[in-house]
Each structure stands twice: as structure tokens, then as C-alpha cells.
Amino acid sequence: MNKVVFITGATSGFGRATARRFAEDGWSLVLSGRRLERLEELQQELQAQVPVHIAQLDVRDAAAVQRMVAELPEGFRQVRALINNAGLALAPEPAQKVALQDWHTMIDTNITGLVNVTHAVLPALLETGKGASIVNIGSVAGEWPYPGGHVYGASKAFVKQFSFNLRCDLIATGVRVTDIAPGMAETEFTLVRTKGNQAASDALYGSTTPLTAEDIAEQIFYVASLPDHININRLEIMPSRQAWSPFAVDRD
Ligand SMILES: NC(=O)c1ccc[n+]([C@@H]2O[C@H](COP(=O)([O-])OP(=O)(O)OC[C@H]3O[C@@H](n4cnc5c(N)ncnc54)[C@H](OP(=O)(O)O)[C@@H]3O)[C@@H](O)[C@H]2O)c1
């Protein structure tokens, strides 16, 4: 059977590693993201292995998402796994110092974008039925508060609850839903969050052992390739060298 995986945010980090992982297992790939050259490079790399369809896409644009899904070529329409991975954090500073636009960008990408793609791809997943999967990339920030988490953490809490609620509605359709919640992983995430501050990114990931994009890709592949009677609801994954902090107390 031709298995098709549809990945958002395939130009970097988890999304790109996930494309490579599914290609290893022979899945056909639908890869999207805003940076076309990155998509073309990945297509070039993987097309000798498996069929690859690329589409430049901003998930915030609902009409563009619908158009892209409607225009999927023959052979890529029967989607078996949707990996809702596109997302970002901005503004690590405290809430009271953040520009409103940064909050809007996170909401538009992590919530509206994920909902846009889910709505557009759902009919194909329903047609696939048994064994189909939606894997939503949440975050530990959706469960655990931390300073500077403000809208990012709240957007990932949405991803978790949306995933659980989808499960309720899709129970009889065969379509599974999982919220994967990674902790610290070294990708371009911190470069994006700090608007290009390489030193901040290096400092965060230095002198410890963060997760890699490949670690998360392996988990995504795992949940989407389990026998069809198993649904992993939520998978929270941290590096062994990351844990929680004590409660903060303001003192005189
Ligand atoms: N790294 C971590 O520590 C960590 C931990 C927990 C959760 N996460 C989540 O994991 C997911 C992937 O992040 P990553 O760590 O792999 O970061 P990354 O390397 O920065 O990759 C983010 C991906 O999202 C895409 N993207 C961003 N905005 C988009 C938009 N408007 N439309 C389409 N694609 C968009 C980017 O592609 P373009 O820029 O080309 O569009 C890129 O491919 C995100 O949802 C993130 O919140 C990351």
C-alpha cells in the first residue's frame, strides 16, 4: 500500500528529520514550509528513495492551505499520517515586555495554522480510516509554566486539548490522534525565538545534552506506525538532563 505522510514545517528541525525517517520506511512524502529552496533541497535528497511532493505554504493562510490540499497530485491524496509540526516560539522575555505582534504570530501559526491544516487534511484521513494518524507537535510548555512561556505555552496547551478533543470525535473513524510534547531539543527553534541570536542558541544548548531532531522524528514515526488498534494519546519527552524547577517566590 502507498503510505502518504503530510508534514508541515519540513524545512528544518523536527519536520525535516521526520521526512527523512518516513522516507527510510518507504512512505510517500508531502512536504510543506515557507522556504522553497529548503524544500527543493530535501526533495532532491529524498526523491531517489520515495515519491516526494513539495509545496511552499504558510499555514496561517487558510485559503492557501485548502488550495494546496485540493491540488495534491494523484498518488499523494490518500494521506495516512498528518504531522502538524510547523510552529514557533517568539519573545523569550517576560510577558510585560513582549510586542503584541509576537503574540499574534504565535497564535496565528501554532493554533490557527494547525487548525487550518487539520481541517483541510481531515477528509483524506477519514477516507484512509483505520491506521490513519494525526500527530500534533505540542510542547512541555503546554503542560508546565515557565518564565517567558506566556503565549507560546498557552498555544501548546491548545494543541494538547485540541488533540484530546479530536480523539473524542474521531473515535469511530479509525483516525488516531497524538500530542507529542518535546522538551529542549536543538533545532533552529531558539534562533527563531531570539530573532537570529546564535550566541543565545549556543548558550542554551551548550554544556548539556539536548534532544535532537532525529530523537523526536523517531517518536513521531513510532506513534504513526503502531498497529492500528493502539493510540498514544500524549507523549512527553525531555532530555535526561532537563527537569522542572522549584516554585518561584518573590521576597522583600
Ligand atoms: N526545539 C524545541 O525545543 C521544541 C520543543 C517543543 C516543541 N517544539 C515544537 O516543534 C515544532 C518544530 O520546531 P523545531 O524545533 O523543529 O523548530 P525549527 O527548526 O525552527 O522548525 C520550525 C518549522 O516550522 C516551520 N514554520 C514556522 N512558521 C511557519 C508558517 N507560518 N507556515 C509554515 N511553516 C512554518 C518552519 O518552516 P519555514 O520557516 O520554512 O516556514 C520550520 O520548518 C514547533 O511546533 C515547535 O513549537 C520545539
TrEMBL record:
SMART domains: PKS_KR (SM00822). InterPro entries: KR_dom, NAD(P)-bd_dom_sf, Sc_DH/Rdtase_CS, SDR_fam. It holds the Pfam family adh_short. It comes from the Bacteria. PROSITE patterns: ADH_SHORT (PS00061). Residues 3-187 form the Ketoreductase domain. The keyword Oxidoreductase applies. Keywords: Oxidoreductase. Belongs to the short-chain dehydrogenases/reductases (SDR) family. This is Sulfoacetaldehyde reductase. The lineage of its organism: Bacteria, Pseudomonadati, Pseudomonadota, Gammaproteobacteria, Pseudomonadales.
